[in-house]
Amino acid sequence: MEELKYHYKYPHPAVTADCVIFGFDGTKLNVLLVERGIEPFKGKWALPGGFIWMDESALEGAKRELEEETGLKDAYIRQFHTFSEPKRDPRERVITIAYYALVRISEVKGGDDAAKAQWFPLDQVPALAFDHDKILREAMTELRKQIHFEPIGFELLPEKFTMKQLQHLYEAILDVRFDRRNFYNKMLKLGLLTELEEKIKLVNKKEAYLYKFNRENYDELKQKGFRLEF
Amino acid sequence: MEELKYHYKYPHPAVTADCVIFGFDGTKLNVLLVERGIEPFKGKWALPGGFIWMDESALEGAKRELEEETGLKDAYIRQFHTFSEPKRDPRERVITIAYYALVRISEVKGGDDAAKAQWFPLDQVPALAFDHDKILREAMTELRKQIHFEPIGFELLPEKFTMKQLQHLYEAILDVRFDRRNFYNKMLKLGLLTELEEKIKLVNKKEAYLYKFNRENYDELKQKGFRLEF
DNA sequence: TCAAAAGTGTTCGCTATACACCCATGG
DNA sequence: CCATGGGTGTATAGCGAACACTTTTGA
Predict the structure, then answer these.
(1) Smallest Cα–C1' distance to nucleotide C20: which residue has it?
(2) Per-residue CB contacts under 7 A with strand C, chain B residues 175-204
């Protein structure tokens, strides 16, 4: 018999912070899932997450989960919705505060966690435990909205990247195609990119300019309130 | 001594659903606040809200609170953020799932609640209990974002309204001024409005057309994905 | 007759979009 | 020399922004 040593006058739900971790493989948007080692849904894939501690905020809990799975401390992370249907966990009532994080796949180390984690392209995600399918769908919707207000894509690319990579990323997130020249022009005019001296030599191709994200310009622009139109 | 009859193996936070209820008085955006009758923060103004029941979702809880304060069952309501700092309530750990609701002030009846409720223009809101100032500010930020994706303003106006009223509402929410002719043209071109036969005679003024919101057109537009630019 | 607000249409500038040719590289 | 992809500029259309005069009404 387990010891039930926390007592309340009224019933309290358990609260978790779960993390939809997005990465970009150069072509497709991927999400990091973990295989559940225990019931319920043992053997099913699920979003990384766990109960929050009583002395940490949900954000801190989500960051803790993120670091456990990826080794990353400072990734972009953002709360997007809280899921509270009474029966969403068969054991007891669990409320989940959901975050999405954007990381560079190349920087992700295997987690401390015993649970095995794996990247899945968004169009090859298996059926997930609990209501995590729904959480993942909602995360994508929010990501697509957010991209109009913040240049979040840069969090998913290496520090230096080509314009083509950036275009592919935006196309993957928004599921559209852009004209190459128009995309180049729009991005350069925005002033969020710094063109580097270096070029990169691509396989069997002409060499391409490298860019990096110009955070100073971004902060300035954000003050004035800007929007990315697509 | 109170009876502590709910027992858990791990500590659980309490969870509330709080509601930022916005109304429009024709000139300014207002928010409905209730005066706290008990400690902590007794006598301070606060957002309506309360603990969620174990058999209802947070949304149901928020709607229940909304109805208690306003008598309204079907208002526009939307979750926008969950607040989880460990010390935000001095009594015990409380996590708050926050919603904002848009209502017509004229349809609001006095609440069932003993607590007295009062409308405050946004620029005359007193210091609030707990971290409710922060919650209110965040609600405004979200409302301003959301207005680009949904014609939420219509929820705040009477069923029939003049173009000038609509303009005043948008100006109040976004805190900008629009050119009257451009605003008229843009709104009419969008196709979200139905012009009515009736006109309304204004005090000491020329009579003005009345419009109502065309929900069929809106649903159609929404399918295709539209954005309101301002 | 005056003040206040409503109705209405045009012009201009900018931005989004569509689109084609040349160059460098490696095989 | 050919295939692949990178780099670059222009022309057009549509939209947003600026803007003025007339009409109605009641005081």
Answers:
(1) A181
(2) 180-182, 184-185, 199, 202, 204
**Could you give the 3-state DSSP secondary structure of residue B148?**
coil
* The dihedral formed by the CA atoms of B41, B43, B44 and B50, expressed in degrees to the nearest 10: 70
CA pair distance B163, B211, nearest whole angstrom: 7
Q: What are phi and psi of A52, to 5 degrees?
A: -85, 145
Judge contact between B88 and B131, C-beta under 8 A.
Answer: yes
Give residue B203's pLDDT band: very low, low, confident or very high (50, 70, 90): confident
pLDDT digits (tens, 9 = 90+) for B119-140: 999 999 999 999 999 999 999 9
> Which residue would you say has higher pLDDT here, A57 or B197?
A57
Read off the pTM.
0.95
How many CB atoms are closer than 10 A to CB B225?
A: 8
Q: Which amino acid is at A20?
A: V
Pairing of strands A207-213, A193-201: antiparallel
Distance between CA A149 and CA A222 in Å, rounded?
9
